[in-house]
Amino acid sequence: MALEQYCPVIQIVGYQNSGKTTLVEKIIKRFTSENYHVATIKHHGHGGSLKKSEPLKDSERHLEAGARITTVEGSGELLMHVKKDQWTLDRLIDLHRFFDPDLIVVEGYKQENYPKVVLLRGEEDLPLVERMSNILCIISWNDITVSESQPIFQISEQGSYLEYIFQKMRVN
């Protein structure tokens, strides 16, 4: 894929411990099973140094699932390891496109406007949906009622939501 070609970006968002990293792993495996090259960007939004932190374990999980390149960003630190005052998601996406992925999966960056899969643990997480834009679908751990028109999947419907995401995000 040349730099000027299209590369879709999908965001996986949800509160802490909602299953974001596990879902990213599943998406990577689904796309790589069809010979797609996947890149990931993990946002470490909890502050502090990235050294010996949980986001590094998450990025290792991304690599083990089959991602070709994975990056963790937080507080201006970028592991690839580059130091800058601030990294915007758009700049990180531009950087990843250099490596010719077929899909970029972003874990976090809730306020950005790329297509999103929103993970909800229960009713207490519903305010997150109201603050999101560009929702592709919602995956819930419990039966909930959402006023949004996007598809809602139960976490147990893995085959259905993975196929839905694949159909919506694949490059034709």
TrEMBL record:
BP terms from Gene Ontology: Mo-molybdopterin cofactor biosynthetic process
InterPro entries: MGD_biosynthesis_adapter (IPR052539), MobB_dom (IPR004435), P-loop_NTPase (IPR027417)
Highest taxon, organism lineage: Bacteria
An annotated Gene Ontology molecular function: GTP binding
Molybdopterin-guanine dinucleotide biosynthesis protein B (MobB) domain sequence ranges: 9-141
Annotated NCBIfam families: mobB
Protein name (record): Molybdopterin-guanine dinucleotide biosynthesis protein B
Gene (UniProt): mobB
